[in-house]
Amino acid sequence: MQNINFDMLPDKFNFKNIDGNVMRAEFQLNKNGYKVVEVDGTGNLGFAPLWEVENNLKNGTWQVVNASDLVNKPSHYHKNEIDVNGYLEKHFPLEGSYTVAEGFYIGNVIKYTSRYKDKGGKQDLEKAKFNLNKLIELEESQ
Questions:
Q1: 36 with 84, same domain?
Q2: Is the same domain home to 59 and 77?
Q3: For the CA atoms of 81, 83, 84, 90, what is the dihedral angle to 10 degrees?
Q4: CA–CA separation, 134 and 140 (whole Å)
Q5: Cα 66 from Cα 55, distance rounded (Å)
Q6: Which is it for strands 82-83 and 78-79: parallel, antiparallel or unpaired?
Q7: Does one domain contain both 135 and 87?
Q8: Helix 84-91 crosses helix 100-115 at what angle (to 10 degrees)?
Q9: Which stretches does DSSP call E strand in the chain?
Q10: CB 127 within 8 A of CB 120
Q11: Are the C-beta atoms of 22 and 16 separated by less than 8 Å?
Q12: b/e per residue, 72-110, with b = 16+ CB within 10 A?
């Protein structure tokens, strides 16, 4: 049984289900103002009542993924053994042929396009487009 303070869970968290699959959950308010949990794992989005989430966490059916993993190594930046952050550090060192601004915009384009299906969807693509347009503006101003 997992020792977890249900009230201390962040609004968004990852958990492993009984099959060992890592899933994403997010607390939201429904149209009646009741707190519910949106669960996304197998491409199906559903809502679970709080009592069900609490029971699954307490009885071990769900196990919250270590919060530091969500901060230090989120799965949407580490797909197929490719570390997006590590790639960016190697290709855009502090000194090189790119300005800080260019490296920033390039890094954001790579970041947002590599994670959009696992995190922000179309909004991440819009963020990538914004950063690409800023990079183009920089290039045109030189």
A1: no
A2: no
A3: -130
A4: 10
A5: 19
A6: antiparallel
A7: yes
A8: 160
A9: 12-16, 22-29, 35-40, 45-48, 63-64, 78-79, 82-83
A10: yes
A11: yes
A12: eebebbeeeeeebeeebeeebeeeeeeeeebbbbbbbbb
pLDDT more than 70, % of the chain: 62
| pLDDT value of residue 128 | 95
- Asked whether residue 132 falls in the same domain as residue 83, the answer is yes
Structurally, the chain folds into a number of domains equal to 2
Instruction: Give the predicted TM-score (pTM) of the model.
Output: 0.50
Same domain, 93 and 121: yes
- Is residue 62 within 8 Å of 17, Cβ to Cβ? yes
Q: What is the pLDDT of residues 29-52, one digit of tens each?
A: 666 655 556 665 544 556 677 777
Residue 26's domain comprises 6-66
